[in-house]
Every structure is written in C-alpha cells, then in structure tokens.
Design goal:
4-stranded mixed beta sheet, 2 domains, alpha+beta, Aminoglycoside phosphotransferase domain-containing protein, Phosphorylase Kinase, domain 1, single chain
Length: 314
Amino acid sequence: MRKNLGAFKIRVDGKILDYRLGKNLKLTDVRNFFIKKYKVKKLWQGPRHVLGEFEKSNKKLFLKLSTTEGIGAVGKNEYRWNEEFNSQIKRPKSNYWVPKNYDCGLYQNKLFFLITDTLKGEFLAKTPTESKMSQTFISSIPHVIAFSQLIQGLDIKNPNQKISAQDIFLDKTKSWLADIPKDIQEQYDLKKLYKIVEKGILGLKAKPRHGDFTPWHLIKLGREQFALIDGEHVMQNGVELYDIGYFIQRVFSVLKNPKLAKNILNLLDDRGLDIKKLRCILAARAIGGFLDESLAHVSDYSYADKFKNWLVKI
C-alpha cells in the first residue's frame, strides 16, 4: 500500500499530518474513558475512527473518535461545520439537517472526539459499493440537488483564507493526479482531464461545499426531511457545483450506475444549470476517481475509464 500521498496531507501548527490512514485503538480503554460521563451502549473500530452509541439524560448520541491527529484535524472541521450549519438552518423548519454537536474534546490529550445527536432514517446507499438503487434513492434526487444548492448558499466566511478558491481547487486536483501511478496516468491519458480543469476553473465562483456529498452520507429521515453527515471535508472557500458533481461521479463510478448519473445530469440541464461549469468539476472528480481506484486492494479502472470517456463528450 502506498502511504506517502500528498493528496491526503494537511498542515496543522507547522506539522504535516495524514488524514487518510487510521489506527486501531484499545476499545476497553476507550470505554473506560467515556463511561465516566455517558452510558456506553456500543463501541466499534472503523477504518479511521472508533465509533459508538451513547446515551445521556435519555438522549441517544453518536461518538466519532479520531484515531490519529491528522484525522482529528479534519474532525475539528466537521465540528465547526455542524455549528455553522445549525446556526443558519434551523430545525425543524428546514427539511435539510446535519448533526447537532453535543460534546467534543481530546482522548489521551491528543485524539479529537466529537459527540452528536443521532439521526435515524434510511441511507440513500448503505455502503460505497455496487448496489441496486432503491425507489427511495431515485425519488430523493430533487432533494439531493436542493440540499447541494442550500449548502452553496450558506453565508460562511473565512477571513484567514489568502488563497483563492480556484487555486485551492486546482492545487488539490494536481495533487490527486500526482499521486496516481505514472503508468496509469499515461495509459488513460489523464492529463487530458487536467487540461479540462485548467480551462474551466476560472469560470467557477467561490462557494461553500460539504466535500463528501455522497449517497452513503445522505439519510432520508422522513417524508420530506434529509440529513447529511460526515462534514470533515467542508470548505468555506470551495467552488460552486462541487458537491453535486462529486455525487454524480460517486453514483457513476462507485455505485456503478451510469444511467442514474446521466439522468441526474439531464435533470440539472433541464433546470438550466451551466453544464460547462459542471464539466470542470466532473473532470477533477474523474481524476480523483482514478486515484481512489489506484488505492483499492484490487484495482479495476473500468468504471473510472467509462466515466472519463463520458464526461469528455459532455
């Protein structure tokens, strides 16, 4: 497994940290730490976090404990996102929710943890794997689009951000490309995708983005209510259309449903969205998709290639 990947590094307090690879923690120690304040119903080790179900004062709560300092850095970003979103979008008036923060802190004086309320419902997709699309998923697409547009319209400012949204997006895309093995870059002519991004980036406006806007992070809570979890990669200074472009790429290449991805694009086109702008996002996400596949236990670039061939013709 390739470990030193620049695309998954962040700088925090002068240190370069990795937020991709997690570690296993001793669950008995974790339980003993939290049992002082909470009724610990369940704990389990995930790839990057220790996750848990807690109760306190008849409230059902959810634990997300980072297993490295790098993962903790993006966990703090998620905490800030939950605070910002809920300060602007009030429950229950809105149909679009994110978790409400209940508590946060440091485990072992270095690993960030976040405790939120529990949002129960039906995930649009249970896992990031090929699966049959439910009727719930298909009927929810207009709400998915509306949620992505709501996020873009939030008034989130970052006065300390000195680099433009366009430069950040281009640099991130460049880092994805650089971390893909050279033979794969050449075999699939990925520089062609990067040129599409370079050409289109100046036409994109700076907008907030969730950054991991996927079917397996979207929950249908009720008839018209939806929740979005896992805001680790939120950016105040993102670029417009990133979230819906990310969603389309995930539906096409990860859930392996090109037909639905194309239907979403057609729906956006019918609504008057600028497809040329979206093409820039899709090209960047195509590069990201090739990187994801290169990190898989067994790499299969067939859907990444199909996605690339589709978007270049848009």
